Amino acid sequence: MDKPIQKKRWTRRNIAILTAGVLFTGFVLYTVVLGDTRSTLNVERDKITISAVERGVFQEFIPVTGTVQPQRTIYLDAVEGGRVEKIFAEAGAMLKEGDPIVLLKNSTMVLDAVNREAQMLDQMNNLQNSRVAMEQTRLSLKNQVIDLENQVANAKRIFEQNEILIQKQLVSKEEFERSRDNFDFLRKRLALTYETSKNDSVVRVAQVKQLEHSTDRLQLNFTVVKQNLDNMLIRSPIAGQLTSLNCEIGEAKTGGQRLGQIDVVDAFKVRVPVDEFYLARINIGQSGLCDIAGKSYRLIIRKIYSEVKNGRFEVDMYFENTLPDGVKRGQSLQIRLELGSEEQANLLTRGGFYQKTGGQWVFVLDANGKQAIKRQIRLGRQNPNTFEVIEGLQIGEKVVTSSYDTFGDAEKLVIK
């Protein structure tokens, strides 16, 4: 009788299959549970820039471009309108104070000056004639007073004599009364003459003052007209360079029109436009550095123009010590405008990564430099060269600082 043969369950084949299944399942579990699931991107080392975090001196500054200008500029304007008669100096000429530049001619002003001068001379003649007439009147009245005083004295003597004689009946009553009446009449006439002389003196003084005031006013008007005529000859008010002159022979210029300008060429300032973002952080006394011919020069802010135009405001900066050799009007200077003092800080070199991350994260290399992992960080102040590291990075760690535009959403870089 045949015995049934038991089929073996754990054959080599089954064991191999089972083992393979277990290994595969374990690999899957390891990959899902314990493995690195971050998205990875392979990059070549020579196509990225790597910078190390360092400890150093940090100073916040912004690069600005200024234009050299004279510290003092005098504008030449036509005080009165006229036609350009003559030009004594051309643009670019060096002038001394008082040198003639342009002569204008205005026939109407010349005629007005002649008329005013004639009026003034007539008034002066009237004043002189009035003074002569008044002096004659004064002398005539004085002569009358002297004559009356003499007559009164004689009449008084006769009256006093008759007063004694009538008591002795040596003179008639009629003659006595006649001498008395004559004496009273002459006294009253003398008093009236005194009053007339006094009133005439007051009137004469008032009249003379009025004529003098009128004459002074005419003289003042004539002086102004004459000064305006003198202003038709434009002279240099200071010693300097005539940097511009907008005149041609025969050209008509109106009053107040700009004719040119004169610059003082022995002292310069630098006019600097600054982005309005920094308006609250710019103050008088702040400084900046610029390099000219291999030397560094410090400039100080002396004036701030707070008016914002096209997103910018302007400041005037002056050289702190000596004026650099060879500096010319209109020259452009690159200036590092300092916004703060020098401080020790952890620094990271600027790079294109900031445009992608805004300074919130970076790729940090591991110890062997073969991988770079995405890490959250925080950056602080910045200047055109470096960022101040606040947290997330340690001194000596290396960071990919070139552009991240080609990395997409990768969280890990494999560097080859």
Task: Please describe what this structure looks like.
With 416 residues, the protein is of the alpha+beta class. The chain folds into 4 domains: 37-58 and 343-415, conserved putative lor/sdh protein from methanococcus maripaludis s2 fold (Beta Barrel); 62-71 and 267-338, Beta Barrel (Elongation Factor Tu (Ef-tu), domain 3); 74-106 and 233-262, RNA polymerase II/Efflux pump adaptor protein, barrel-sandwich hybrid domain (OB fold (Dihydrolipoamide Acetyltransferase, E2P)), CATH 2.40.50; 107-227, Helix Hairpins (Orthogonal Bundle). The chain has helices at 12-34, 107-167, 173-231, 353-357; strands at 40-43, 50-52, 54-58, 61-70, 73-77, 82-87, 94-95, 100-105, 233-235, 240-245, 252-253, 258-263, 268-275, 287-292, 295-309, 312-319, 332-338, 343-349, 361-365, 371-376, 378-382, 386-391, 398-400, 412-415. The strands form 5 sheets. Strands 1-24-20-19-23-2 form a 6-stranded mixed β-sheet, with no helix packed on it. A 6-stranded antiparallel barrel has the order 4-13-16-15-14-17. A 4-stranded antiparallel β-sheet has the order 3-18-22-21, with no helix packed on it. A hairpin with a 2-residue loop joins strand 15 and strand 16 (312-319). The two termini are 74 Å apart. The mean pLDDT is 83.
User: What's the CATH topology name of the largest domain?
Assistant: Helix Hairpins
Q: Please tell me the overall pLDDT.
A: 83
- So what's the overall shape? rod-shaped
Helix % is 25-40%
Number of strands: 24
State the CATH class of the largest domain.
Answer: Mainly Alpha
Structural class computed from helices and strand pairing? alpha+beta
Q: Mind telling me the C-alpha Rg?
A: 53 Å
Low-pLDDT residue spans: none
**Number of DSSP helical runs:** 4
The appropriate CATH architecture of the largest domain is Orthogonal Bundle
Number of domains: 4
Main-sheet strand order equals 1-24-20-19-23-2
Strand content: 25-35%
H/E element order: HEEEEEEEEHHEEEEEEEEEEHEEEEEE
Q: Give the termini separation.
A: 74 Å
Q: Report the sheet with the most strands, covering strand number, pairing sense and barrel closure.
A: 6 strands, mixed
